[in-house]
Amino acid sequence: MATAVAHLELDRPRCEGHGLCEEASPHLMHLDDDGELILDVTDIPEAELEAAKTAVRVCPVAALKLARA
Ligand code: SF4
Predict the structure, then answer these.
(1) Residues in the ligand 1 pocket, defined by CB under 6 Å
(2) pLDDT category, 1, cuts 50, 70, 90?
(3) Of all atoms in ligand 1, which is nearest to the CA of residue 29?
(4) What distance in Å separates the CA atoms of residue 3 and residue 67, rounded to the nearest whole number?
(5) Contact criterion met (CB below 8 Å) for 11 and 63
(6) Rounded to whole angstroms, what are the CA distances from 51 to 10, 14, 64?
(7) Does 29 score more than 80 pLDDT?
(8) Predicted local distance difference test score (pLDDT) of residue 55
(9) pLDDT range class, residue 4, cuts 50, 70, 90
(10) Which residue ranges form the domains of the chain, and what is each CATH number?
(11) What would the mean pLDDT of 16-44 be, rounded to a whole number?
(12) Is residue 6 a contact partner of residue 50, using CB atoms and an 8 Å limit?
């Protein structure tokens, strides 16, 4: 498994479930049937870093953040 270079975190109370992050990076996260965002990948390898950064950037309420692994 690839070494994680960052950790993706969700501030769940902030998340409004519009799914812009999912549209941007559908292989990292998805909305479940109740509209709750599920992070499918939280240990982000180098190859996924740009996708994770994009998801963080598109969130209109800053509910996602990347922390150092
Ligand atoms: S873009 Fe932000 S508010 Fe929308 S589902 Fe993703 S984390 Fe939640």
Answers:
(1) 15-21, 37, 59, 61, 63-64
(2) low
(3) 6
(4) 14
(5) yes
(6) 15, 21, 13
(7) yes
(8) 98
(9) very high
(10) 4-68 (3.30.70.20)
(11) 97
(12) no
